[in-house]
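Fold this sequence, please.
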Amino acid sequence: MNLDFLGGLRVVESSAFIAAPLAGMTLAQFGADVIRIDMIGGGIDYQRMPVMEQGRSLYWTGLNKGKRSFAVDIRSGEGRELVQALVTERAPAGGVLLTNIGVPWLSHAVLAERRADVITCTIEGSSDGRNAVDYTVNCASGFPAITGRGSAQRPVNHVLPAWDLACAYQAAFAVAAAGWRRASTGRGAELRLALSDVAFSTLSHLGMLAEAELLHRDRPSLGNDLYGAFGRDFGTADGKRLFVAAISLGQWRSLVQACELGADVDRLQRELGVDLAREEERHAARARIAQLLEPWFAARSLAQAARVLDANSVCWGPYQTVREALANDARVSDRNPVFERLDTVGVGPHLAAGTPVREQGLARGATPPAPLLGQHTDEILLEVLGLGSAAVGELHDRGIVAGPERDPLAGRQAGAAAFEGRAP
């Protein structure tokens, strides 16, 4: 479900992979009219795994909810001219480009010649101009050396494309902010954002760069232990696992109370000469604290432990697979207003998320499912660019633009009738 904060903004998105499409979807979830520029037949990620039996990509449809699709031959001069016109059309809502595909004909300088107040946001791989993706940036960030039991010699990659995600939200915020400034001052903006800068700036924000520079050390790998306080995983009697965090003093006291370890903790403090009310000393004594807690969890099932932990306001969470979360966790269901059920062509009915931001007291509109390629080509040509129906027909006849019938997956769906009338 979506919020309608950016209803006065139209964004043209020319993108692939994760960061730029997620940034565009985030803008759409806040009410912007986001128009995807799609190659006729689909771009490099249109059928990226995982896919349904008919070939529809769950990856692509997940990242492109709520957008309109304009299928155009961007290899032709006339197709490029149409895209440039779409980016720079004179309506106050228009004049915004979001891209991670750096092509000269969509450069800020070229577009600014047509509309001086144009806003462009280009997502790059590396700030030094080198080609990079999330995974090649992550390996240079230092995190694989401290993930799990990793080291510089045996790095451990995590599976979350964290820099793509952080970059996407940063880009969406930057575009929205630039749109607000243009509405106030009339100024356009050329914005550039590199995945590598997102990663290395995060190291700075978290104090990790300063730790390396000023304390002359790298953060150690701690397995599943929490850095700087007490937190780790425990096994239960029924073979389940959960994670317990005691970062704040309140969280620590709740954990000690729930597990009835007050006397044991007092003895441990006297033995070690420490004050476990201090988070750094809990971190230093984490192995001994875990020895006190392990028997308590091992003697209880996950359900039994959960009841006691919840009754004492302990900060904890269960380890679960995505399928287990979908089956058992109310937070991943349509009982959570963040989620709704969408019926996407080629996918079918499924649970899908809108923006995780909730505005109290506001009913949010439904999220349109991801489009087929070219699903909105005609309405964009007619309503946004103002072309006549004869001109639109001629562009179709010459293969400059295409509708959903040219989607390579359309024949594997229920036919053209399956997607007629599905425009957001």
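Residues 414-424 have pLDDT under 50 and may be disordered. The chain has 16 helices and twelve strands.
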